[in-house]
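quick q for whoever's on today - can somebody do inverse folding on this one?? i tried earlier but teh output was garbage lol. tokens:
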């Protein structure tokens, strides 16, 4: 089979190589899956660079989120068991963790429903307890993680403010349903949020960026507000000033979604049921901005690394250059 291999850490466009390799052999409790679509996540970028908390042995195949097909023909959503990741024709995954792919979504959309939407659901509902009528601020609102949070916030009845970087991304954020869109490249974020909220600030802030975005969050969080920290796409990990949290009476909530797979896997299944229901009634629909063939995966992962994409970019092994599956 064909699979992208990483023999040394570095930039995806430089170190990922498409090679002919043997199909992986499932271990105890694992299944072999034919990859129907593999979604590109920022952790894939970090893993290729060698900067992620999980460091699979070299060589490995990246790709942490797929829609796959079991040997008996079932469509499932899975997190492949590294080093046999999803940017390949076949991957392996833990049988106990497979989730049914919703009938309402195609393969690429189903692949994109998992990590970003589970993170959003746990962050907004389990951690921040977002309520209808509250104001939700989402950083990087047009990205893969942010777009999921925007849709989930709207589905929960929140007023959503989206912060983006650039006019093209602002268009995407509006199409996603943001009530207010702030372009950080042409507007002063803190002033714009205060104006949009009458000086009150945002009740819940969803931050997959860190760095300057987190600093802005502390300046616009409302009384009894909650800042949900889900990642550091900026590359800068902030150091919260706890005295500031005390005097402004807000909470800083960390979210590592992957922990629920071991600490409370029943909640992951419950969340998937909620997401499937939301997708079935059209309240959420993953924004898949690009579908690329397998041989385009390295360039696509590099585009995600460079921050020039919107929504999700998905690798579809059965796709040809002309766009046919």
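ok took a stab at it. sequence:
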């Amino acid at each position: 089979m064909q699979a992208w291999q990483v023999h040394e850490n570095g930039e995806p466009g430089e170190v990922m190589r498409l090679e002919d390799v043997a199909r992986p052999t499932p271990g105890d409790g694992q299944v072999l899956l034919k990859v129907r679509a593999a979604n590109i996540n920022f952790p894939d970028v970090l893993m290729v660079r060698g900067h992620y908390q999980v460091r699979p042995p070299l060589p490995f195949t990246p790709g942490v989120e797929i829609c796959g097909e079991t040997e008996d023909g079932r469509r499932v959503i899975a997190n492949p068991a590294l080093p046999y990741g999803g940017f390949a024709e076949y991957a392996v995954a833990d049988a106990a963790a497979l989730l049914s792919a919703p009938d309402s979504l195609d393969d690429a959309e189903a692949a994109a429903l998992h990590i970003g939407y589970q993170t959003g659901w746990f962050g907004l509902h389990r951690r921040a307890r977002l309520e209808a009528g509250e104001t939700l601020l989402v950083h990087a609102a047009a990205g893969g993680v942010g777009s999921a949070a925007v849709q989930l916030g709207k589905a929960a009845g929140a007023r959503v403010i989206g912060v983006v970087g650039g006019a093209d991304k602002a268009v995407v954020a509006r199409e996603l349903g943001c009530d207010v869109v702030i372009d950080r490249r042409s507007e002063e974020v803190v002033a714009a949020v205060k104006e949009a909220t009458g000086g009150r600030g945002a009740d819940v802030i969803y931050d997959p960026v860190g760095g300057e975005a987190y600093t802005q969050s502390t300046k616009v969080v409302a009384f009894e507000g909650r800042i949900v920290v889900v990642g550091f796409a900026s590359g800068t990990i902030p150091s919260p000033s706890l005295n500031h949290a005390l005097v402004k009476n807000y909470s800083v909530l960390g979210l590592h979604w992957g922990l629920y797979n071991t600490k409370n896997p029943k909640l992951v299944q419950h969340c998937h049921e909620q997401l499937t229901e939301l997708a079935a009634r059209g309240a959420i629909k993953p924004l898949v901005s690009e579908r690329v063939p397998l041989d385009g995966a390295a360039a696509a992962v590099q585009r995600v690394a460079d921050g020039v994409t919107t929504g999700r970019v998905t690798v579809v092994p059965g796709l040809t250059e002309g766009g046919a599956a």
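fwiw The first helix runs from residue 12 to 15. also The two ends are 18 Å apart (CA to CA). so keep that in mind when u check it
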